[in-house]
Amino acid sequence: MNSMNVYNFSGGEGNLCGRFKNVLPRFFKILSYKNLSPNKRFEGSNESSIYYNGTDNFKHCLYKQNGKHHVTNNYGKGKIYKNKSKLLFINSSNSPHFNLQKKWNKQEGLNYLFNRKLMYTQGNYANNVYPKIFNSEKKNYSIHSLGDTANGGNTFSNEDKNKNYENNNGNNLDAYFDQINKYIDVDMYKNKYGEEIYNEIINLYVKRDIPINYEQKYFLKNVKKSIIFDMDKYNDEEFEKKIEEEFTNNGVLINTINKKYYSKKNIKRMLTILNYLPLLKIINSPMDLKNLKNKYLPLLSHELKMFHFFLVNITGGHFSAGLSLLELQLSLLYIFNPPLDEIVYDIGHQTYIHKILTGRKLLFLSLRQKNGISGFLNIFESVYDKFGAGHSSTALSAIQGIYEANWQVLQSNKNDTLKSEDSYDRDYTPNKFHISIIGDGGLTGGMALEALNYISFLNSKVLIIYNDNRQVSLPTNGKCISGNRPIGAISDHLYDFVKKNGSENLSEASQSSEENIINESGKKQNIFTNINYDYIGPIDGNNVEKLIKILEDIKNKGLQKSTVLHILTNKSSDFINSKSPINIMHSIKKNEIFKFNLEELDNCHEENCNNTNDESKKEDSEKNDTTINDDEIFSNETYINIYTKEMLKYLEKNKNIIFISPAMLGGSGLLDISKEYPKNVYDVGIAEQHAVTFSAAMSMNKNLNIHLHIYSTFMQRAYDQIIHDLNLQKIPLNIIINRSGLVGEDGATHQGIYDLSYLGVLNNSTIISPSNAISLKKALKYCSINRKEGSIYIRLPKVNTLSDSYMKNYLNMDIMRDMEEIEKIKDPEYARNNYFGKSQIIQMINPDKKENEGKKLVCIFNMGSMLYNIVNAIKEIEKDPVFSEQFSFSIVDMIFLNPMDTNIIDYVINKNKHDYLITYEDNTLGGFYTHFNNYLIEKNYISKHNLFVKNIYLPNYPIEHATYKEQQEFSKMDQQNLIHRIKNYLTSNFE
Predict the structure, then answer these.
(1) What Gene3D superfamilies does the entry give (predicted)?
(2) Count of helix runs (H) and strand runs (E) in the chain
(3) pTM of this prediction?
């Protein structure tokens, strides 16, 4: 095809500007420009190809009227454009008006444009343009199009290309995917997979030249097309039924997913993204995956990386771990036959690729969203998720349990009547593979080591894939007592082993061992072979070609005994290192990589979009009908931020404060501390039991002040040590409980809603639940005092602290006075008499005042971080004259448990004569309210004073992934639900 000339219609004498010229393609037939920012359709037009640049300057559009072509600047009048056939939109803020006269018919019109070489006009917008290319003749290339709803034939046909381009809103997704390609660094593929694959990747994903017959080229046979390519043939109800059937056939337990996530609107959004990923677009299950030709797996690997970057940026979630294991997840599904073959991943936060390829790619806009797909493996979500997880070091125990259960069933089916244990045939194994994937971090956990021992002892024929990336669950590149290296002697041992048997460069080591890896691995001595495992490796776990060869060999030969496959992977890249060198982008927030609005994926008329948006805004407005918004309530700092800043101040005066964490330096706010005081920080790895006993023993040295940081959800794993090693010995350890209460998108496996229940029963353990930054600072000051005995647990939620203005205006706090009191707490006697075990009164009703005469008195006792909800709810109830005339309200922030402030309870009941008592806490059954009720019973207050008592606490069933606010609403613990619950309670018990 010959290169066509670019004609300048700007009215100027010079050439097109360099920037404008650079974005023009070298070959084209028709070139069309649609201004991208801002993108607006003309009001009243039925043509989605009408755009303007949002200014009042000339707007030019080529259209047909009365058999003639016209380019006009009368865009603002509108009527002339309605229902007209548009060929080319020309936008310029300085171009003169001109007309083109030519009789119109379809072919003649196209020829006219080709022959006249009509191109862009140049204007002040030139630096913003992003051209689209139409190629209607060159058969071996296809323009990438948006909003494709092609049928089951060739996905990218010429007819569909042009149709879809006309339906495009001008969304500049090209730029996003271009940027993602830069983040991934496509040049690395040349060395990894060779020139041919590299060129394929450049053509498909950089140039976006997708062959018309690409399915025939890349796949062994045609893949059965998804219903989504025919969605416009069905009404909404029919489509919902068919897409649910498709999900079910692909192993998805779709009843657990909210229908809105697979509505036509959201499916079209996903399809818009998948148009950039032609292979992934038609792969819906592992069976489809197996039809992809082996040599083109690197192409799919690249598509999965692009999908991962794009979607996780939209939803937020775990990031780098999924990239580390991307090729392995792809390879396992390609070689083995799940769900028949059992595959279990440790933790599960790294399994997004597994989810994508097992029927859930179209649901990824729901990742970690309320009633959407989980960020971890979930047995209630898919038949491919064999064992749920969320915590570390469980996978080896799980896979052995599954293997032994299958072996037992197999033995019983043999109808073996002999009862001697010698009759059991350990060589007679299930006709399936049992595979577990665990990382170097997971193997620092004691539970994993226990399983490693027992698997070998029984010779359970499982394949353990050891993912060696020199990181732990949350990367520990921060400095600590062990330097800035990963935690664990096993990791160090295997690192030395790799260097000894290959090269000091891990990549070179994996390459050098590939050729004879099966034959040579058995001769190598390491920790695995020393405990009687077959050992294979190490190999490059980020090279899909090498993984396929090794896994294929393992599948063909079978397992003779318990086997370890050692893979070397990399969580990082130049992009990740530059953006987040410390935590390696372990997880990312929404829009952290680039800002993106989901509406950019929509292909709908502006008036429809506006109606939808107005409707949703109206619903949101009604739903959140409150005079106090989040900006007024919260500061910009989290509780962890406050903790870190305070500790850095303490360390300036006292270098004997020691910090200990089980692999959670980043999430615990210790990275900044470790930078300045590395010798004061211990990262013990994923070993919560060890962390507690280790910290307890260190705390027995009275010269040190020990702070153990542990997530509430992970502290459950060390409960025996808390009771046996810590509580019974009355050791004065400070435990900072991170992420106490609701945690948001991490969901049920990570909720911190049980700690008040299991810690509250320990008599030598004081629990402090700060509801604001001042309360936290007081607690930290108290922890700095040397004490003889008793542990202190400080519960820190995963939310921002309350703003100063909110504390002053709604909590009635005198911040200056409170700051002065913090300094007084360093005096042990003052602290014992004025701080320890004391609550804080937010508002207290005086029954003797005239305005309270004849009213029922209500007191709410809060425990924990959601104090603001109860305060806001009461403020709203007080505005209701029906209730304000009948009731007066007191609010107390209890703060302490063990000891609980019984004096304030006595005061409220005996002196202030309150009638109704309500407790409110960020914990489930068995928490603060249990202690409160027990005290009332012990004192016989309920019958003696005719009290009405209401306990409000979090439910004891799993609270799944959603935003923090949505979880509050779901649990009926938010402001609006509290208003309703308290009003109902008061009216139903009003005398």
Answers:
(1) 3.40.50.920, 3.40.50.970
(2) 42, 28
(3) 0.69
